[in-house]
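Last lecture ended with a question: if I hand you only a sequence, what can you say about the shape of the protein? Today we answer it with a concrete record. The protein is Septum formation initiator family protein. Below, first the input exactly as provided, then the predicted structure, then a couple of comments.
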Amino acid sequence: MAKFNSKYLKPFKNIYVLVLVVFAVWMIFFDAHSYLFHRELNADIKELEYQKEHYKQEMQKDNKAIRDLSTEDGVERTARETYYMKKPNEDIYIIEYEDSLPKQNKNE
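The predicted structure:
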């Protein structure tokens, strides 16, 4: 039993190695600037960067919609295509293709 303890514990008898191990464990797990805390922060940064790119793309889409709606033709086209509005004495025909309709169960 004495061989087992002396073989594996011999490096820890040196005070410098012992202090280094305690310091490393403290910095990795317990300190306010620990590795685990930094890993969580890096994950948060990646998520925020992804959201930033997403919102930039949404802003580009919105700016395009604003440009389209800034002209009279754009407003008319949007009103006709999206809201099915029409001028007086005008008929609207909505054409739906078979592949664009939702499928119904034949059992019903």
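Comments.
1. Residues 35-69 form the longest helix (35 residues).
2. The chain has two domains: 1-31, 39-87.
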